[in-house]
Amino acid sequence: MSRIAIAAAVVLLACHQAPQPQGGAVRPTATTDEFNATTFIPSVAPESITTAMWIAITQPDNIIPRGPGGVIRDVITVHFETSATAANRQYAMAQVRGSVVGGTGAGVGEHVYYVRIPYHLAAGDSALGPVLRATVVLRALPFVKMAAVVATGPVIVPNAAPRGISQTVIDSAYAPANLLNNPPSVQGIVARNTLLVRFVPTATLAQREAAFALVDADVIGGMLGTATTEGLYYIRLRHAIALPPDSTSGPMLRALKALKALPYVRAALYDRLDQTIDVFNR
């Protein structure tokens, strides 16, 4: 069967990988009620999240186990469009009753806000219900570029694209349950949670790590480049979960958009089933 340029490369739901916290004095604990009221949102996201705050939000009882690490149950990241006004940002926080607790410079044009929300489970909720609903609400706003849950597991990125991909990974990516047939905005059959990414030759390791952290993806294979061409990373989105009003291709499309907006990413591609894997495993 024709299989996408899988070996080609490594791009919540889209999740955001947490940066290394920076030192500073911030109260390490806070009551749930404190985060019920919308607080002032700065016009520019903070450059970092303090060590004290990071310790507070990553306590064991605040982490929901998922994949190689976990997801913080009451914190999300928000990346606004550069055109977002102060009123737009305040409105967004009001919709999820959020409070800004930090930020990171991973975004392009705009930094990314870390936002803490009240953790209240609704009837029939999963443990991640509150943060998943908050990201859906925010992504529906035209001035929000990305909203994602926060993963705590490491994203390990090699400084060059790997060569080839294991058969086990191929079988998982192309399992029938993982395929989308002509989903919204996409023609053909594609994998729902794997993408191919090529960087510009001057991209640093830190930039490559930031790109995959932005969309919360793991490098699971790739294809070597040439003397003049960067290789392709084959990546898997950790939390490509479509929730109403999302389309089935929503998480994948958002990840592609976020990656393509980065100046050090040359290409971000669907994992399509219209090329054979053998071409990329040479």
What does this structure look like?
The chain is α+β, with helices and mostly antiparallel strands and 282 residues long. The chain is 20% helix and 26% strand. The protein has helices at 51-57, 86-96, 129-139, 167-173, 205-214, 250-260, and strands at residues 15-17, 63-66, 69-80, 99-104, 112-116, 144-151, 179-181, 189-199, 217-223, 232-237, 265-272. The strands form two sheets. Strands 1, 2, 3, 4, 5 and 6 form a six-stranded mixed sheet that branches. Strands 7, 8, 9, 10 and 11 form a five-stranded antiparallel sheet that branches. The longest helix has 11 residues, at 86-96. The radius of gyration is 19 Å and the shape is globular.
What's the arrangement of secondary structure elements?
Layout: E1 15-17, H1 51-57, E2 63-66, E3 69-80, H2 86-96, E4 99-104, E5 112-116, H3 129-139, E6 144-151, H4 167-173, E7 179-181, E8 189-199, H5 205-214, E9 217-223, E10 232-237, H6 250-260, E11 265-272
Parallel strand pairs: 1-6
Antiparallel strand pairs: 2-3, 3-5, 3-6, 4-5, 7-8, 8-10, 8-11, 9-10
Q: What spatial form do the alpha-carbon principal axes imply?
A: globular
Biggest β-sheet, characterized?
6 strands, mixed
The number of helical segments is 6
Q: In percent, how helical is the residue content?
A: 10-25%
